[in-house]
Amino acid sequence: MKKPFTIIAIILLSMIAVLQLLRFILGWEVTVNGVSVPVWVSGTAFVIATGLAVMVWRETRT
User: Using one digit for the tens of pLDDT, what is the confidence trace for 17-56?
Assistant: First the structure.
């Protein structure tokens, strides 16, 4: 049986990955403390969040 925290972590990481991908594709502007964050940062964040979600999901399958 999977632990609730693990399921929540997979869902949250997946949601973060989807939002980062949407920002990357649609070019949404993000400003943090007056500094514009480049869109390529979201591409990197998408890869990292997706990788973490997949690793946690694969860990639960063993």
Answer: 999 999 999 999 999 999 999 999 999 999 999 999 999 9
Q: Are 30 and 37 in contact (CB under 8 A)?
A: yes
Using a cut of 0.90, tell me whether the model's pTM lies above it: no
* Per-position DSSP letters for the chain, written without gaps between them: ---HHHHHHHHHHHHHHHHHHHHHHHT--EEETTEEEPTHHHHHHHHHHHHHHHHHHHHHT-
Strand partners, 32: 35
Half-sphere exposure in the Cβ direction for 40 (13 Å, CA): 0
